[in-house]
Amino acid sequence: MITSSTDQSVETNTNHLLEPHWAEITAITPEIEGVSTYWLKFTDPLEQAAYSFQPGQFNMVYVPGFGEAAISICSDSQDRSLIGHSIRFVGNVTHAISRLKVGDVVGLRGPFGTSWPVKQMEGKDVFIACGGIGLPPLRPALYHIIRNREKYGKVTLLYGARTASDLMYTNEYDSWREANIDVQVTVDRGDSSWNGRIGVVPMWFYNFRIDPRKTAVLTCGPEIMIRFVIFEALARRVPPESIYVSLERNMKCGQGSCGHCQLGPYFICKDGPVFRFDALQPFFNVEEF
Amino acid sequence: MPNDHRPKLGSTIAIQKPVFNTLLARLREAGYQTIGPCIKNDTLVYDSIESINELPYGYISEQNAGHFRLIQAGHKNYFDVIPGAQSWKQFLFPPRVDLFALRKNDKGWETITPPLDAPAYAFIGVRACELAAIQIQDRIFMRDDFNDPIYRNRRKRAFILSVDCSNPAGTCFCVSMGTGPRVKGGFDLNLTELDDVFLLTIGSELALGLVSDLPFEDASAFMLSTAERIMDNAAKKMGRSLDISDLPELILKNLDDPYWQEIGSRCLSCANCTQVCPTCFCWDALDHMSLNGLETSRERVWDSCFNPGYSYQAGGNTRPTISSRYRQWLSHKLGTWEQQNGTLGCVGCGRCITWCPAEIDLTKEISILRKEASK
User: Fold this and answer.
1) pTM of the full predicted structure?
2) Where are the domains of chain A?
3) According to CATH, what is the number of the domain A21-112?
4) pLDDT at residue B189 tops 60
5) Is B161 a domain residue?
6) Does ipTM come in above 0.95?
7) The pLDDT of residue B319 is above 90
């Protein structure tokens, strides 16, 4: 029946909700039509030094007057000097970002969310199946694998885009191959200059030899692609516990408070964005959930 | 009632009703804004009160699906009216609150943090269901991994004078949800209204200090048994009931049931239910920029899973149909909430039923879903 008595003191110094930390745009790399990578550095060197993230995590990127967008981190988690965000200009905030120049500042909060299971995958084969703008959140995982290549078995990257000119990070594929990553690329529609694979990612997924007992499947990309990759992986007897998927939804806080990104019992910002598929299985085929 | 001894923590005392004014005055002297039920512009609201005379004496509220009427019933009680659309949520989790402002300078943006506005509220007349709702929101806003400074500073200063409900309304179902009508804990003072006196149970040291030299008598065995009887009667007068057995499972196993679409065809997606719900916590953050682009302020506002933009993102809307939004609301409130927070998100206050313009009644919808599912 007894409560602890009411505390009448007011905190004078509180961390204010959503208050951004400022980061300067040090470089902008155009990637493909409508997508550029922004290389950010906190204006406060101490903040930059203190910042670290795990592959698969994201930041809330803020443009004053426009708002925040959740953007995955695409740079190397071991490189503490810069934070990279590959951003597709598609909404209100990202269009505002597209108008910024080197030297401008944006607000950053993060890192938030879960990460790819790079530790748990040690000793296993890794099959990464991703499409379009789904590659950037996986690139830090690739960098981690390459740096610790001896800890993993066969590593395959199956990456697809609509056309050859929509493929991200093409200048890195050779260095990934040199690091013994089997990089396989496909496009939905070829043209006269394309002599590689044609067809969607799940279709090609079926053509790879994988050992379901010792393979971890990581996937990110358009929702329809994710669905069919998982469908194919399960059909190949990969257990749900070995399939990892990164999801996205409208987010305002990144901390499981604002409610927007809920999927069933989960807040995608806090319990995801990377989920082990068995956690999602009950809700995955419910439409509009 | 001369009295030579002082009340004790956990004990129940009786005061004459006019003495309540002294208690309100003491709270104000201690720096509290005393907020309670009162009638403003013909409706029942929670607002500043200074005297017992501002309480809705003699009133009851008639409530049903899509129906609320305030009626002067001529009874002799101050706390017999079941609340209207407002709840205490608006004080602890304000509908609009400034987060910060930014001013552009040659280096970037200067952050101007507003002074922390944390009024000390004394909530007068918190119902058992409402207290349960506050405790549910505590788990949302004061988690180990996310502790909201706006909520926390208001919540920890709030003085709670709760009240046992003697006269439930037509949309009440706190008994089903296990939250009322009797207040179980978490208060500074709990009030039970009898014909001639207020019984006050002392729940905190702070409350003890405030009441210790009020003219009082110890609650007699007769008074306590009268209170008991009133509570037993109140529990039998619930206007609604909800069978919560296996509720999360029932909902989560039937997410594809066509009945959601039937509800969706009646729901207007107006978001009233989420605005009046004392546990709904979703919020949005908005920027307001000056026309010259040099200043912007960011504010937090209530949002609702019924708003079309709520789940919109580049590439489309996760829940484009009204039925999917209703299912999100109800499957969260009575389903997935439990996994997130250890309790259901409903306290049985009935506001979502009363204030639904389409008269959608979740107790009825769940019982139909239960029948559909067992087919």
Assistant:
1) 0.94
2) 21-112, 125-284
3) 2.40.30.10
4) yes
5) yes
6) no
7) yes
Same domain, B223 and B273: no
One domain for residues B193 and B263: no
| Minimal-distance CA residue of chain B relative to A267 | B340
Domain count, chain B: 2
Residues of A in contact with B122 (CB under 8 A): none
Joined together, the tokens standing for residue A16 give 């204010």
The model's pLDDT over B328-337, given as tens digits with 9 standing for 90+, comes to: 999 999 999 9
Regarding beta strands B96-105 and B295-302, do their DSSP bridges make them parallel or antiparallel, or are they unpaired?
Answer: antiparallel
Inside any domain, residue B241:
no
Q: What is the pLDDT of residues A104-133, one digit of tens each?
A: 999 999 999 999 999 999 999 999 999 999
Residues B42 and B149 in one domain: yes
Q: Write the secondary structure of chain A as one string of H (helix), E (strand) and C (coil).
A: CCCCCCCCCCCCCCCCCCCCEEEEEEEEEEEECCEEEEEEEECCHHHHHHCCCCCCCEEEEEECCCEEEEEECCCCCCCCCCEEEEEECCCHHHHHHHCCCCCCEEEEEEEECCCCCCCCCCCCEEEEEEEHHHCHHHHHHHHHHHHCHHHCCCEEEEEEECCHHHCCCHHHHHHHHHCCEEEEEEECCCCCCCCCEECCHHHHHCCCCCCCCCEEEEEECCHHHHHHHHHHHHHCCCCHHHEEEECCCCCCCCCCCCCCCEECCEEHHHHCCEEEHHHHHHHHCCCCC
Q: Are residues B202 and B131 in the same domain?
A: yes
B319 in reach of chain A (CB within 8 A): yes
- Asked if pLDDT for residue B3 goes beyond 90, the answer is no
Q: Which residue range is the domain that position B30 belongs to?
A: 12-93+116-236
Is residue B282 domain-shared with residue B218, that is, in the same domain? no
- B186/A3 Cβ within 8 A: yes
CB distance from B316 to chain A under 8 Å? Answer: no
Same domain, B274 and B355: yes
Domain boundary (B236, B265, B280) is at B236
The answer as to CATH 1.20.58.340 being correct for domain A125-284 is: no
Calculate how close chain A gets to B58, using CA atoms only, in Å.
30
Total residue count of chain A as it appears in this document: 289
A4, A5, A89: which to substitute to probe chain B, counting the most B Cβ within 10 Å?
A5
